[in-house]
Structure formats: structure tokens, C-alpha cells
Design a protein that fits this description.
single chain, about 300 residues, alpha+beta, 6-stranded antiparallel sheet, 5-stranded mixed sheet, 7 helices
């Protein structure tokens, strides 16, 4: 995509945005580092920004660029950055690394060019240098496809993709994985009393409150599962750590002032916390366990955490 002023109309047509928005997006793009965009794999469209001089790509959760794909080695490849030049080399991976269909020999360092396609096992990432408008474009597409429009959390579709990948990775690497399920208590009464606009306010305020606590990491997945039910997937966290987080959230929700049309709406949450166990074979098993514990909290009087 060209950036000269004579083609600004083309850019507007391509992105479907007005010129003012285009200019704003171009300014944002100038501030973006180089990145690898996952175009085949889960989560599709995810951007991995190259922010260090040396970064390891692999399926290991501790890798700098961690991709949940069993065909990728734990330490599959290495990306290095020297100024504006980005290079990649294979680290002796089981299934190899290829650039635009050409396989790299282990130890060979290859310079990446704009829009190069890098195949890592069965996954493919696209390389974009720093400052490319396409980085923003992909980010906007990915966000729109995976985000709940009301709460700006991840949507259920994204969550189901993410938990499936995380369960496979956790089982392969023998790392902990915990899931928190929330349900806002008596939410139907909120809608009946304050209307759906009042209910929407509570949902948005609830998610802003949880995000504002600063306890959700970049690896965690906070999503709206449906209606007034939300979930927090926590890779690498034990059930004890997740339970502590859940109790902090429960207390914060209970004491927060939800004010709508000058009236305070009492809001509490029933929560279930489950950890991936050896006898769980699929993501559905972990979801079922967390949902069962959520039900126990509701049956036990609500506004509580069951682990």
C-alpha cells in the first residue's frame, strides 16, 4: 500500500474510512513497532510486536512470542532486530521454518522483507516492518471480529478458540491452567427494574471495573460468555492463584457503587473457579467444571466463590 498524498483517496476506499480517520490511523501506525501477524493459526489475526533485540518464537508459554500450535517446537526460531532490520533463524525445530515457501537451514539467518510469509510448523505469520498502516488495519479487523460490541471484552467465539488452544498447550507442557466463571446475581431483576439500558450500564461498568483492577495480565483472556455471564481464562495460573483473584474481584464488585439515573444498583457476582486436571481431555471438560462450581455458588446463596 502506498502512502503518498496522491493516493489518499485509494487508501480511504480500501479501508472504508474518512480522510480524518485515515490520517489519525497513519499517525498511530508510525508509532507501531515491526510485527508478525498470525494469518494461519489460533488466534488468527493476532499481532506479535517485535519489541526486543532478540525474541524466541515457540509453543513454550515462556517464549517471547508464544504460539499455541503443537507442530511448533518449544523453542522454534529466533527473531533479531538491529535498527530497522529484522532477521529470523530456525533453532533446529522439528518441523522447520520457511520463508515464502523456502525452508531455512538451522543456523542460517535470513533478513525479513515486508509481507514475507513465515511458516512455523503448521502456522503462518506475516511480517510487517515498523510504521506500516497495515499493522493498524489488521489490528482493527482482529479487534472487531473478536470483541463483544457492548462490553469491549473478547466474545464467546474468541474465547472458545483460545481455551481450546490453551488446554492443548497446558497438557503438552504440563503447565497449570485455570478458568474463572462469573455470573451477575439477579440480573433479570436489574433489567426489569431499570430497563435494558440500565442492564447495559451494569454490564459495561462491571467489565470496566474488572479491567481497571490491574490484575488481568496480557496472557489472560477476559470474555463475555453470554448474557450476564463472563469468564477469565488464566494460563500458567494455579487454582489457588485464580481463587485469590476471584475473591478480590467478588469483593470489588460487591462494594462498587453502580449508579444509574442517580440510583445505586446493588450488584454481586457468583463465581466458579476450576483448574485443568489430568483427567480432563478437552476444553469442554474445563468449562463444564467451572460452570458446575458457578452453579454451586448460586445454589449456596450467591455472592460467593466456589473452588
Amino acid at each position: 500500500m502506498v502512502d503518498d498524498d496522491n493516493n489518499s483517496g485509494d487508501k480511504t476506499a480500501i479501508l472504508g474510512l474518512d480522510q480524518e480517520t485515515i490520517n489519525r490511523e497513519l499517525q498511530k501506525a508510525k508509532e507501531q513497532p515491526a510485527c508478525l501477524i498470525l494469518i494461519r493459526g489460533t488466534p488468527q489475526g493476532h499481532r506479535y510486536f517485535i519489541t526486543q533485540d532478540e525474541m524466541i518464537i515457540g509453543r513454550d508459554p515462556a517464549a517471547d512470542i508464544s504460539i499455541a500450535d503443537q507442530s511448533i517446537s518449544r523453542k522454534h526460531a529466533k527473531v533479531t532486530q538491529e535498527g530497522a532490520i529484522v532477521k529470523i533463524e530456525d533453532l533446529g525445530s522439528a518441523n522447520g521454518t520457511a520463508i515464502n515457501g523456502k525452508k531455512l537451514e538451522p543456523g542460517h539467518v535470513a533478513k525479513l522483507a515486508k509481507e514475507d510469509l513465515v511458516k512455523l510448523g503448521n502456522s503462518i505469520v506475516k511480517y510487517l516492518p515498523a510504521g506500516e498502516i497495515e499493522i493498524i488495519f489488521y489490528g482493527n479487523l482482529n479487534q472487531a471480529a473478536n470483541t463483544d460490541p457492548l462490553t469491549r471484552c473478547f466474545n464467546k467465539g474468541y474465547f472458545l478458540e483460545a481455551i481450546d488452544a490453551e488446554v492443548k498447550r497446558a497438557k503438552a507442557l504440563s503447565t497449570p491452567l485455570s478458568l474463572i466463571f462469573f455470573d451477575l446475581d439477579h440480573f433479570k431483576k436489574v433489567n426489569d427494574t431499570y430497563g435494558h439500558e440500565g442492564g447495559d450500564y451494569v454490564l459495561k461498568e462491571f467489565t470496566n471495573l474488572i479491567r481497571g483492577m490491574g490484575i488481568i495480565t496480557n496472557k489472560d483472556i477476559f470474555a463475555r460468555y453470554g448474557g450476564e455471564e463472563f469468564c477469565l481464562l488464566m494460563p500458567g495460573k494455579s487454582v489457588q492463584e485464580a481463587a485469590k483473584t476471584a475473591e478480590m474481584m467478588r469483593g470489588k464488585i460487591q462494594t462498587h457503587a453502580f449508579i444509574y439515573e442517580a440510583k445505586r444498583i446493588p450488584v454481586t457476582s457468583s463465581i466458579g473457579v476450576a483448574e485443568l486436571k489430568a483427567d480432563m481431555d478437552t476444553a469442554a471438560d474445563l468449562i463444564k467444571a467451572a460452570d458446575k462450581l458457578l452453579y454451586e455458588s448460586k445454589q449456596g446463596g450467591r455472592n460467593r466463590v466456589s473452588v
